[in-house]
Design goal:
A hairpin with a 6-residue loop joins strand 3 and strand 4. The protein is an alpha+beta fold. It contains one helix and five strands; from the N terminus they run βββββα.
């Protein structure tokens, strides 16, 4: 069964926008992959979980674009990367704060 959800994001120069995300793969405590229909980025998000010794878990979060257009990759993708890097740092810090309570 395919799972979808709607996420509200803030798009520069546009404001709030709702994007549809499809859950491509989900294995509890292992991996979670989504793909979005947001043009021109066509995002793919992968989160992997790895249980370490000493009762800790490593989380790896990767954002990618499924757009293979060379013009997009050279002109727009660097802008998206800059925005996402900033948001990711804030998100990771917020998650760390929550988990360390």
């Amino acid at each position: 069964m395919e799972k979808k959800y709607i996420e509200t994001v803030i798009v520069p120069f546009k404001g709030e926008s709702k994007i549809s995300l499809n859950v491509v793969k989900a294995e509890e405590n292992k991996i979670f992959i989504t793909e979005g229909d947001f043009s021109p980025l066509f995002p793919k998000m992968t989160i992997k979980f790895h249980e370490n010794s000493s009762n800790t878990t490593t989380l790896t979060w990767c954002m990618q674009s499924r757009n293979t257009n060379l013009i997009f990759k050279s002109l727009l993708l660097p802008i998206f990367k800059k925005i996402m890097n900033k948001r990711a740092k804030i998100g990771v810090q917020n998650l760390k704060t929550i988990l360390e309570k």
